[in-house]
Automatic annotation (TrEMBL):
<dbReference type="InterPro" id="IPR002048">
    <property type="entry name" value="EF_hand_dom"/>
</dbReference>
<keyword id="KW-0677">Repeat</keyword>
<comment type="similarity">
    <text>Belongs to the FAD-dependent glycerol-3-phosphate dehydrogenase family.</text>
</comment>
<dbReference type="Pfam" id="PF01266">
    <property type="entry name" value="DAO"/>
</dbReference>
<feature type="domain" description="EF-hand">
    <location>
        <begin position="636"/>
        <end position="671"/>
    </location>
</feature>
<dbReference type="InterPro" id="IPR038299">
    <property type="entry name" value="DAO_C_sf"/>
</dbReference>
<comment type="function">
    <text>Calcium-responsive mitochondrial glycerol-3-phosphate dehydrogenase which seems to be a key component of the pancreatic beta-cell glucose-sensing device.</text>
</comment>
<dbReference type="GO" id="GO:0005739">
    <property type="term" value="C:mitochondrion"/>
</dbReference>
<feature type="domain" description="EF-hand">
    <location>
        <begin position="672"/>
        <end position="707"/>
    </location>
</feature>
<keyword id="KW-0285">Flavoprotein</keyword>
<dbReference type="Pfam" id="PF16901">
    <property type="entry name" value="DAO_C"/>
</dbReference>
<keyword id="KW-0106">Calcium</keyword>
<keyword id="KW-0560">Oxidoreductase</keyword>
<dbReference type="InterPro" id="IPR031656">
    <property type="entry name" value="DAO_C"/>
</dbReference>
<dbReference type="GO" id="GO:0005509">
    <property type="term" value="F:calcium ion binding"/>
</dbReference>
<dbReference type="InterPro" id="IPR006076">
    <property type="entry name" value="FAD-dep_OxRdtase"/>
</dbReference>
<protein>
    <recommendedName>
        <fullName>Glycerol-3-phosphate dehydrogenase</fullName>
        <ecNumber>1.1.5.3</ecNumber>
    </recommendedName>
</protein>
């Protein structure tokens, strides 16, 4: 296990502190200088903390230098006579099971019917945490099980920050206090959280005065604020973390394949007991339609919300155990929160907990918790988006106008809460994960949380080894570095800038996404033809994603455009409009890499647009401006906007086209390419007839005044042209990240 040491421990005094860091000090367990990785030792981790690593025994299998191609993985699935374990599900838990099994020396296979992390694992709050609210319940209800769950999660938090430092980091989270009596109450609770973490505490929590809290979080509601408490948890890039686990398993020799679904389970009769036993699965390559059998001594069901569908493949009569709950999150511009300080609302209007966190230079807020149906394509609901916005308004200063139009993306994830099938009370929801083995030998892992994926995987493989008499030792995954972590350092990005001529922002992004594999991406980056940057063409101007990542993403088993915009890059989760604009270029690059036909390219483009429209909140965003949008403008505003409109519609046609806009811009010596103008008008063209009518323009301006729409390039362009018709100035046409460079009114 990993112990984070905020201060010198009793047996590590200041006099020998340097010796411990250098490895020269012999510690209590006899580990000294020269010990190999995966042996217990003190060392300074990559976040700067001194940690004691009591690691598992080294993995029994070597790690491959190169990642096998998906085609080779499919061949391994088809040609291997029998695997020790076959894992169904490529989320965090399933991928964790594959890594745990393969590093024990078990012959391991994993199949996922969609993409790795395509479900719940990519749609989380992005936190690695023990759960402050669970500790509160444990104390208030004297619930020892809840306490153990928090303790386990805090241990796993420490491990995850250590094994993937490029994808994770500690994050301070502020809990604002608005009543004096709450200050000692919350302080005791947070200090207990630190105490439970023990030596694995990231940093000690502390109390802030009102003035200091506002200094660190200036957009906070200051009326009635009496102070704040700051504590630390972890944050990560969830989809990339999931992918790193799966790719690490593949490098250790697991046969892993996405877009490979289980059609039905294979069974055979046990000659000793006469009972039917699960012995594999009949699978289908979703992309080609090819079907084949995968034989295995043990099959593991790690399918999250779809747990019951696989259990029913084994036994049609088995009762459902999954109780799905939908959690909606929204993404807003980065200026809604400080760069390195989150916010926790511990008691919302309906008793939920809301987090408000900086993430990837944006702000993510969530989550809701409502019962839902199980679906592979959950859709964020407008009422959930508005609930989160209302809660955000309660905690932000009245000087900050929280606008519906500032929601850049929204998503819904299905949390697979479960009832324990081994419990007599089948109606009770299990707060922790459960591992169940059916009469036919199917091992099911369900429930739990992202942070504890590794311990869940360990428990699952332990159960599989015991139930199927597999020859394997103990788990090797504590302290086992994930892909990209080995040679990563906080200054790695500087080498990328110096050696390849990448922009600093792009280099930092590559280092924090790929770790030491960032150099592989940089090597294939295209020359820009500019003085600076030398290499690295961006997919969209305001995000650091570059075209080389699309090529590299294909090597990371990306098979569709949706894989690329949502899980290899996180563009869809950060800004749906930016993702939509990047689609044509991504389709072209992937088409070339994967030899797509023109028809396949069209299908991929359509599928990606559908994904953005329904699953990532584009539909909810676009519905803020519709044909039936009410025009609620005062007469003076209507006249002012009509005058602005007719400046472009000189012929009084009642609508404007690209030619009208070009004519006005040319009159003030401004040139914008036709494709950009087409995109700008298309944002407002509600009936998609290639022109913007007066009513559409008035609806736009009305929606902007209400805060339903923001970042309209047409509104900014038309106002700027009106103000500067006789002056020559540059008109901004880039998206502003949700807000506007100046008022479009």
């Amino acid at each position: 296990m990993i112990y984070y040491i905020p201060n010198n421990p009793p047996h590590l005094t200041s006099s020998n502190f340097a010796l411990a860091e250098s490895g020269s000090l012999e510690l209590k367990n006899g580990i000294s200088k020269g010990s190999k990785r995966n042996c217990s030792h003190w060392r300074r981790n990559k976040h700067g903390n001194l940690v004691y690593i009591q690691a598992a025994e080294p993995a029994n299998v070597p790690m491959k230098n190169h990642l096998p191609a998906r085609e080779d993985q499919l061949l391994a699935l088809q040609n291997t006579s029998e695997f020790d374990v076959l894992i169904i599900g490529g989320g965090a838990t399933g991928s964790g099971c594959a890594l745990d099994a393969v590093t024990r020396g078990l012959k391991t296979a994993l199949v996922e019917r969609d993409d790795f992390s395509s479900g719940t694992s990519s749609r989380s709050t992005k936190l690695i945490h023990g759960g402050v609210r669970y500790l509160q319940k444990a104390i208030m209800k004297l619930d020892f099980e809840q306490y153990k769950m928090v303790k386990e999660a805090l241990h796993e938090r420490a491990n995850l920050l250590e094994i993937a430092p490029h994808l994770s980091s500690p994050l301070p989270i502020m809990l604002p206090v608005y009543k004096w009596w709450q200050l000692p109450y919350y302080w005791v609770g947070i200090k207990l959280y630190d105490l439970v973490a023990g030596s694995q505490c990231l940093k000690s929590s502390y109390v802030l005065s009102k003035s200091r809290a506002l200094e660190l979080f200036p957009m906070l509601q200051k009326d009635r604020l009496v102070g704040a408490i700051v504590y630390y948890d972890g944050q990560h890039n969830d989809a990339r973390m999931n992918l790193a686990i799966a790719l690490t398993a593949a490098r250790y020799g697991a046969a892993t394949a996405n877009y490979t679904e289980v059609v039905h389970l294979l069974k055979k009769t046990d000659p000793k007991s006469g009972k039917e036993r699960v012995c594999g699965a009949h699978c289908r390559d979703v992309l080609t339609g090819q079907e084949f059998d995968v034989k295995a001594k043990c099959v593991i069901n790690a399918t999250g919300p779809f747990t019951d569908s696989v259990r029913k493949m084994d036994d049609q009569e088995v009762a459902n155990i999954c109780q799905p709950s939908a959690g909606v999150h929204i993404v807003m511009p980065g200026y809604y929160s400080p760069d390195n300080m989150g916010l926790l609302d511990p008691a919302t209007s309906d008793g939920r907990v809301i987090f408000f966190l900086p993430w990837e230079k944006m702000t993510v807020a969530g989550t809701t918790d409502t019962p839902t149906d199980i679906t592979p394509h959950p859709i964020p609901k407008e009422e959930d988006i508005n609930f989160i916005l209302n809660e955000v308004r309660n905690y932000l200063s009245c000087d900050v106008e929280v606008r519906r139009g500032d929601v850049l993306a929204a998503w819904s994830g299905i949390r697979p809460l479960v009832t324990d099938p081994n419990s007599k009370d089948t109606q009770s929801i299990s707060r922790n994960h459960i591992v169940a083995v059916s009469d036919s030998g199917l091992v099911t892992i369900a429930g739990g949380k992202w942070t504890t994926y590794r311990s869940m995987a360990q428990d699952t493989i332990d159960a599989a080894v015991q139930a199927h008499n597999l020859m394997a030792g103990s788990s090797k995954t504590v302290g086992l570095l994930l892909q990209g972590a080995k040679d990563w350092s906080p200054t790695l990005y500087i080498r990328l800038v110096q050696d390849y001529g990448l922009e600093s922002e792009v280099a930092q992004h590559l280092a924090s996404t790929y770790g030491d594999k960032a150099f592989e991406v940089a090597k294939i980056a295209q020359v820009t033809g500019k003085r600076w940057p030398i290499v690295g063409k961006r997919l969209v101007s305001e995000f650091p994603y570059i075209e080389a990542e699309v090529i590299y993403g294909v090597k990371e088993y990306a098979c569709t455009v949706v894989d690329m915009i949502s899980r290899r890059t996180r563009l869809a989760f950060l800004n749906v409009q930016a993702a939509d604009e990047a689609l044509p270029r991504i389709v072209d690059i992937m088409g070339k890499e994967l030899n797509w036909s023109e028809q396949r390219k069209k299908e991929e483009l359509a599928a990606a647009k559908k994904f953005l429209y329904y699953e990532m909140g584009y539909k909810a965003k676009s519905e803020q401006l519709t044909d039936s949008s009410e025009i609620s403008l005062v007469p003076s505003d209507i006249e002012r906007y009509k005058k602005r409109f007719h400046m472009f519609d000189k012929e009084n046609k009642g609508f404007i086209t690209i030619l009208d806009v070009q004519r006005v811009l040319e009159s003030i010596s401004i040139q914008i390419d036709e494709n950009t103008l087409h995109d700008i008008l298309n944002e407002v063209d509600l009936n998609k007839n290639g022109q913007v009518e007066l009513d559409e323009f008035l609806q736009l301006m009305s929606a902007i005044q209400k805060g339903y729409v923001s970042g309209s390039r047409l509104a900014v362009l038309m106002k700027t042209a009106e103000e500067n018709l006789h002056q020559r100035v540059v008109i901004p046409v880039d998206r502003s990240g949700g807000g506007l460079p100046h008022s479009p009114n």
